[in-house]
Write a structure and sequence with these properties.
The complex is a heterodimer of chains A (about 375) and B (about 1100). Chain A is α/β, with parallel strands linked by helices and about 375 residues long. Helix content of chain A is about 25%, strand content about 30%. Chain A contains ten helices and 19 strands. In chain A, helix 8 (about 240-250) packs across helix 9 (about 260-270). Chain B is globular and about 80 Å long. Chain B is about 35% helix and about 20% strand. In chain B, the strands form seven sheets. Chain B has a seven-stranded antiparallel beta sheet with strand order 14-13-10-11-12-15-16, with helices on both faces. With about 1100 residues, chain B is an alpha/beta fold. The chains are: A alpha/beta (about 375), B alpha/beta (about 1100). At the A-B interface, helix 3 and strand 15 of A face helix 9 and helix 16 of B. The structure holds adenosine-5'-diphosphate (ADP) (2 copies) and magnesium ion (2 copies). One adenosine-5'-diphosphate binds next to strand 26, strand 30 and strand 31 of chain B.
């Protein structure tokens, strides 16, 4: 790795922090968000939900166990959650340049350079996080220290969060994965690979369709539909929301939403969503199942949430966040439609809610027979 | 579910404590027990505590509703249950001691008989985890992997199992503590010895297991409530891989070399296991993890609070013991608030934005003949925890915290004859060996091959080693960039000064100029995701700002005791916590500084601000410059803070209480001795030896042998020793390494057959205000920390006591003492000589405070604040007696001779009360492991006069106790001439029956062995007898005075004649409302 040029992180409120660059050396802009997980940077960096965002990791040592070799194109292998790094940029306290792990083939810095993603180390990520918590998520820039503010704003690469981004994270057309007898349609607006892996591992076949294709014909052949996670504001996914709304009018089999899928289902059902001050991003978010009272530690990555009091009469809150009381899942009182705001597929994070995939498929199987 | 606790709410609960501190079971259980009491009392549960450890916070006034300072045995527990009409019991807060006592109560059907409900984890689950075979079977039921193993109940079975398994094998004992009886056997020839060790001391079961040396060792702390909500609070990774006990390992939290897949695999297995076993509360699960692939083995589950859980609590800010207690009371996790954020609940998993590093402290060098290697059995006596943001920062802090005279991870800290051997066979110094290997150019890969330490850690040490080289390089200068980098790598100012050969204070001055300061960050459990009101802070050079502003109120800073080591442990934590509480009562904001995770003083809710950091001039000044407290208390934490007094004073920091100049006068032998002469107070004659050649002449001047030798320059370990004759003296002087004018050796007249007496006192502006006098049962020559203390004195002349009080008053006046102090005396026919005087709280402060009912630590603190308090208690008028007895851990220190001397050897203590000396003494000894003899007594009584001196007691053994006496050679003859029947036995195995065989067979269950001369290794004779006694757990007395006291007590108080009374009942007569 080349010697660290001085590099800076600037926030829209004027905060400037300096560090050293590792990874690609280009200026980027994006919404700055923090994740409090202590391991799992490979999974997070490739999670399409982070598309367009600058990710801050609160755990101070990053890169300890390196990065596995690149996976062959078309493969679904973990720990990768998509076939590229999705974040705009990465901010860490201390980049560990000499990893040690049996599965490691390259350092984090090497990987970031290979994928042309800039990163900065030497930032007090705790103080930065406190700022983001107090002011809420902000736009920010990663740029060479000496670059002028004007140049930075002009040249920094950024994603179009309102439109372009949703196509960037979805496959061009449907992809089919042979598994077991059950047919599941995964609606992909940036779904993590582990959602597909979780279904295949449970003997289902998966058709992974981009959100923008015509879903109706695919749905008619599916024993169940899973609307996956993705980046951005669900309200910018109008076309998907209306497709789902018309599906719900006719489709009588299980529909399972995850993260963005939870919000889309809510909007399709006539509910509303809103932006959280600084989102939930981590692997220690506690939720309670309002039906059983049981509590679970979940993996989460979202900036928007379902507005519970906006739910139509025949929908009920299902899960609630124990820390801040925000909604973590909803279900229809009349139809087999249900969704969660957290990530039952984990990766990274606790696997405690993996049973939701079992429940979904069991139901799909039962209704098929 | 989220309903409140169930109907059958416990009303009167018995909490079992862990007894005396010992290797493998230390202060952490004072922390967990104290938290449990707090949780119970919040719920209005009437709490009764059974714990003889008088030095703890949990056994303090105002904690449990009723306190029994008695042995934690099923018999006594049952008696307490009856007396207190107990309806429920907590077994998991008192370590292995409480757990095993609970199991015994259960197995004898006492719990059912007395209708006592076990709160929290049921006994069934405890048995499943403690019985290694049941454990393996239970985990197999859910397909969780354990190491291939065979449980054996006899050496013969074990031999067969080993033959089947092949070498190397791992031996592990069930129901054991701190890896006791466990070990790695690499070859046939070592098997018998290993099996003998494993089965001696009545081990019930031995597991012969596949050896997983080199695998990573990982631990998770798991919490589960009755509603089946389950979380893992923290995971920890051992730097030292499998084969070295977690308690002997350097440990970091969270794990550093695990990816998410591995982290979650182990987490998921932990939760499945805990659910399957039905744990209700807290437990610890230990794993071996394959370094070369994703594979694991579960090593064990400890179904109780443990050393690791205390560490995890301090590492995360998650109060595991408190939460476990609430769960035992029937609460579910989401119903319990998160005390740190005050906004969230206990149902979550802490996210750390820092890392911690724990390093154990050993005192092996204190023990002649101790095996230096460390392994699967615990030998360490304490531990430290450092908090920071990079591995170099935490490892360097931690190594300094050990207080072993190192400046951090210094490759030159120690010299090694054979570096590779050091790396291969770990000793307490291996980490420095790794640094030295790196400095010497050995590759990370090579070091990893030899040590199996993950390269990540070795890599993490490299920059530190590099910086030491850079700083020591000729021409290196104190430039800002270098300074900034060094501080970031965890270097102390002093390390930088020394490495650059600059005068002390240079680095600090430079930092002040450039403005390089540490910042203070909160431990908030959620990585800043939620606003936290927490007052739990650590310092780091990797932060750009501090999280909290200095408090605005009048405040006082209390310096803690630091790492536990032989000679300084929980008793000083008791003093510090009492100081903090008293300060709060007086309306001050309190700042506690300490770095020992096994303490109550580092529980963030005892003070207004806990700064978990070093106790060094640098760290204290950094805090002081930021917080500007009105004063600093250095006299409660023992020698560590006391040693800072003068330097803090010079730096302009206001030290509360006695002036540091006067502290210095008392600490310095010359000035103190001059003061004594001036006051006409007698002291043992002493001289400085600055040249070994002049030693004999000086001994003459002192009036001949024996003499006590105190080298002034001691790296670590055995400092003082007694020389009985010239050769021995020369040997000792040789061991002292340096004897020179600037490193003089102090040689004092050793007074034989002298009584030793102590006074613990509080003075106010030179006036004695509170005092208590204790006498030692042993003659002087047994370190005050190892001696059996009696309060009030039973055999000392009133005149002597008056004299002692007068001397104490003279010293208080002369040294203008305000606050705590302690003076030790020798008394020989009523002549009184002063041995030493410490102007700080002493080891016996909790003991005397709890026996007399007057809190000396609190009173001393009030006086230091200028608050006049309650006057004196006349400790002589007490109508009860208190006895403090030492607890030794010799059985864990292979090779060590359990002889007592002027160097302290005990690891803990108990203190019990009784109507008279006999009752208190037997209770105390019982609490320290003594059992009434029932089979036979072995006598081996050194010098001739001793043999006759013991005659009456020998006769009592024969005529009253009606026990057969076995005696070695000379002793047998002496007894014969006295007409006391006994069976002569040989010392060593031979043709006639030997003492050893009697011990093995259990024919004797009490041994009195007073050595006469020294064998060729300089070991007192009878070494083998004493060693065997220790290994088989047979009660052994090596001091004649104590042995006589014990026999007399056994004669006066037959088994079953000992009263079971609560501390509160003893106190009723002496209690004054004042305190
Ligand atoms: N099969 C094994 N192979 C190698 N080392 C082992 C094995 N089992 C245990 N150990 C080592 O022995 C230590 C003590 O074992 P453990 O069962 O944890 O005793 P304790 O119950 O006293 O904690 C462990 O910390 C581990 O380092
Ligand atoms: N002159 C002496 N004669 C006999 N015993 C002594 C003498 N000086 C010290 N001792 C014994 O040695 C023990 C330790 O001595 P002390 O000065 O108290 O060391 P420490 O500073 O470790 O407490 C004392 O408790 C006492 O039993
Ligand atoms: Mg263990
Ligand atoms: Mg254990």
């Amino acid at each position: 790795m080349a010697i660290d040029p001085r590099w800076r992180l600037e926030l829209e409120d004027g905060t400037v922090m300096h560090g050293g660059a590792f990874g690609a050396a280009r200026a980027v802009a994006g919404e700055v968000v923090f994740n409090t997980g202590m391991a799992g940077y490979v999974e997070s960096l490739t999670d399409p939900s982070y598309r367009g965002q600058i990710l801050v990791l609160t755990y101070p040592l990053v890169g300890n166990y390196g990065v596995p070799p690149p996976r062959t194109s078309g493969s679904l292998d973990g720990p990768f959650e998509s076939d590229r790094i999705q974040v705009q940029g990465l901010v860490v306290q201390h980049h560990v340049a000499t990893p040690s792990h049996h599965a490691s083939a390259r350092s984090l810095a090497t990987w970031l350079s290979q994928e042309d993603v800039p990163a900065v180390t030497g930032i007090d990520t705790r103080t930065l996080t406190r700022r983001l918590r107090e002011h809420g998520t902000m736009r920010g820039w990663l740029a060479p220290a000496q670059m002028s503010a004007a140049d930075m704003r002009a040249q920094a690469d950024q994603r179009d969060m309102r439109n372009g981004i949703f196509r960037e994270v979805a496959p061009p057309e449907p992809v089919r994965y042979e598994g077991g007898p059950l047919e599941v349609l995964v609606v992909d607006a940036g779904a993590k690979d582990n959602i597909v892996r979780s279904l295949l591992a449970r003997e289902a076949s998966v058709t992974r369709a981009p959100w923008h294709c015509d879903l109706a014909p695919l749905a008619s052949r599916a024993d169940g539909i899973l609307i996956g996670n993705g980046p951005g504001d669900p309200k910018d996914l109008g076309p998907l929301v209306s497709q789902v709304r018309s599906l719900l009018a006719t489709y009588r089999r299980p529909v399972f939403g995850v993260c963005l899928g939870n919000q889309v289902l809510c909007l399709a059902a006539g509910g509303d969503t809103y932006k959280l001050p600084y989102g939930h991003r981590g692997v220690n978010q506690p939720v309670r199942d309002l039906q059983t009272g049981r509590c679970y530690v979940t993996s989460q990555n979202h900036g928007y949430a379902v507005r519970e009091d906006s739910l139509p009469a025949d929908w009920r809150p299902w899960f609630v966040n124990i820390n801040d009381g925000s909604n973590e899942g909803i279900r229809s009182g009349t139809e087999p439609y249900f969704s969660v705001q957290f990530h039952p597929e984990a990766s990274p994070g606790p696997q405690d809610t993996g049973f939701l995939f079992d429940d979904f498929l069991r139901l799909a199987g039962a209704m098929k027979a | 579910m989220s309903s409140a606790a169930p109907a059958a709410r416990p009303r009167r609960t018995l909490l079992l404590g862990s007894g005396a501190l010992q290797i493998g079971q230390a202060g952490e259980f004072d922390y967990s027990g104290s938290q449990a009491i707090k949780a119970l009392k919040e719920d209005g549960v009437f709490t009764v505590l059974l714990n003889p450890n008088i030095a703890t916070i949990q056994t303090s006034d105002g904690m449990a509703d009723r306190l029994y300072l008695l042995a934690v045995t099923p018999e006594i527990a049952a008696e307490v249950i009856r007396k207190e009409r107990i309806d429920s019991i907590l077994l998991s807060f008192g370590g292995q001691t409480a757990l095993n006592c609970g199991i015994a109560l259960h197995e004898r059907g006492l719990l059912d008989e007395l209708g006592v409900r076990v709160l929290g984890t049921p006994v069934r689950a405890i048995l499943d985890t403690e019985d290694r075979q049941l454990f393996v079977d239970r985990l197999a039921e859910i397909g969780v992997k354990t190491a291939r193993s065979i449980a054996c109940n006899s050496p013969a079975e074990a031999r067969r199992a080993v033959a089947g398994m092949g070498y190397p094998v791992m031996l592990r004992a069930g129901f054991a503590l701190g890896g006791k009886g466990s070990g790695i056997v690499r070859r046939e020839s070592d098997l018998d010895a290993a099996l003998q060790r494993a089965f001696s001391g009545g081990a019930r079961q031995l597991l012969v297991e596949e050896y997983l040396g080199g695998w990573k060792e990982i631990e998770y702390e798991v919490v589960r409530d009755a509603g089946d909500n389950c979380i893992t609070v923290c995971n920890m990774e051992n730097l030292d891989p499998m084969g070295i006990h977690t308690g002997e390992s350097i440990v970091v939290a969270p794990s550093q070399t695990l990816n998410d897949e591995e982290y979650q695999l182990l987490r998921t297995v932990a939760i499945r296991t805990v659910r399957h076993l039905g744990i209700v509360g807290e437990c610890n699960i230990q794993y071996a993890l394959d370094p070369d692939g994703v594979d694991y083995r579960v090593i064990e589950v400890n179904a109780r609070l443990s050393r690791s859980s205390a560490l995890a609590s301090k590492a995360t800010g998650y109060p595991l013991a408190y939460v476990a207690a609430k769960i035992a009371l029937g609460y579910d996790l989401p119903e319990i608030p998160n005390g740190i954020t005050k906004k969230t609940t206990a149902f979550f998993e802490p996210s750390l934005d820092y890392l911690v590093c724990k390093v154990p402290r050993w005192d092996l060098t204190k023990f002649h003949g101790a095996v230096k290697q460390i392994g699967s059995e615990m030998k360490s006596v304490g531990e430290v925890m450092a908090i920071g943001r990079t591995f170099p920062e935490v490892i360097q802090k931690a190594l300094r915290m050990l207080d072993i005279g190192v400046m951090g991870l210094d490759p030159e800290a120690f010299a090694f004859d054979d570096l590779e051997q050091e790396l291969r066979h770990a000793t307490p110094r291996r980490i420095f060996g790794v640094a030295q290997a790196l400095a010497g150019g050995m590759s990370v890969e090579r070091i990893h091959e030899i040590t199996d330490i993950d390269p990540w850690f070795i890599q993490g040490m490299a920059p530190v080693v590099g910086m030491f080289r850079q700083l020591r390089a000729p021409g290196a200068a104190l430039v800002p960039e270098l300074l900034r980098e060094a501080k970031g790598l965890g270097f102390s100012d002093q390390a930088i000064d020394d490495a650059l050969k600059l005068p002390q204070g240079s680095a600090r001055a430079a930092r002040a100029r450039i403005g390089i300061r540490p910042h203070y960050a909160q431990i908030d459990t959620l990585a800043a995701e939620f606003p936290a009101e927490t007052n739990y802070l650590y310092s780091t050079y990797h932060a750009s700002a501090s999280d909290v502003a200095p408090g605005a109120r009048r405040k006082v800073m209390v310096l803690g005791a630091g790492v536990y080591r032989i000679g300084s442990s929980v008793e000083f934590d008791w003093c510090c916590v009492n100081a903090v509480r008293t300060l709060a009562e007086q309306g001050f904001e309190t700042i506690m500084v300490n770095y020992n995770p096994e303490t109550v003083s580092t529980d963030y809710d005892i003070c207004d601000r806990l700064i978990f950091d070093e106790i060094s001039l640098e760290s204290v000044l950094d805090i002081w410059e930021r917080e500007h407290p009105e004063g600093v208390i250095v006299s409660m934490g023992g020698q560590v803070p006391n040693n800072l007094a003068m330097r803090l004073h010079r730096a302009g920091v206001p030290v509360l209480g006695t002036s540091p100049e006067d502290i210095d006068r008392a600490e310095n032998r010359r000035t103190f001795s001059a003061l004594l002469d001036e006051l006409g107070i007698d002291q043992p004659a002493w001289r400085h030896v600055t040249d070994a050649a002049m030693a004999p002449r000086i001994v003459e001047e002192l009036g001949g042998f024996p003499v006590l030798v105190r080298p002034s320059y001691v790296l670590s370990g055995a400092a003082m020793s007694i020389a009985h004759e010239p050769n021995e003296l020369q040997l000792i002087l040789a061991r002292a390494k340096r004897v020179s004018p600037d490193h003089p050796v102090v040689v004092s007249k050793f007074e034989t057959r002298a009584r030793e007496i102590e006074i613990d006192a509080v003075a106010d502006r030179g006036e004695l205000v509170l005092w208590a006098i204790s006498e030692h049962i042993e003659d002087a020559g047994v370190h005050s920390g190892d001696a059996t203390l009696v309060l009030p004195p039973q055999s000392v002349y009133i005149a002597t006591i008056r004299r002692i009080r007068r001397i104490a008053a003279q010293l208080a006046a002369a040294l203008k003492i305000t606050g705590p102090f302690n003076v030790q005396f020798l008394a020989k026919h009523n002549l009184v000589k002063v041995i030493e005087c410490n102007l700080r709280a002493s080891r016996s402060f909790p003991f005397v405070s709890k026996v007399t009912g007057a809190n000396l630590a609190a009173e001393a603190t009030r006086r230091m604040l200028g608050v006049a308090g309650a006057g004196n208690v006349a400790s002589l008028e007490l109508d009860h007696v208190g006895v403090k007895a030492p607890m030794f851990s010799f059985s864990r220190l292979a090779g060590v001779d359990p002889m007592l001397g002027v160097e302290m050897a005990s690891t803990g203590e108990v203190g019990c009360l009784g109507e008279d000396l006999q009752e208190a003494l037997l209770h105390a000894l019982h609490a320290a492991g003594f059992r009434y003899p029932a089979r036979g007594v072995l006598l081996s009584l050194g010098p001739l006069e001793d043999k006759y001196w013991f005659a009456d007691e020998a006769r009592l053994i024969h005529e009253v106790l009606k026990l057969p006496i076995y005696a070695t050679g000379g002793t047998a003859e002496a007894l014969a001439t006295l007409g006391i029947p006994c069976t002569p036995v040989a010392k060593l195995p031979g043709d006639s029956t030997s003492a050893m065989e009697l011990i093995e067979s259990g024919a004797v269950d009490l041994i009195v062995n007073v050595p006469r001369e020294y064998d060729e290794y300089g070991r007192p004779d009878g070494y083998l007898i004493r060693r065997r006694a220790v290994e088989t757990g047979t009660p052994l007395f090596t001091d004649l005075q104590l042995a006589r006291a014990v026999i007399e007590a056994l004669w006066r108080r037959r088994p079953g004649e000992l009263g079971v009374r609560a501390w509160q009942d003893f106190m009723r007569p002496v209690r004054r409302p004042a305190d």
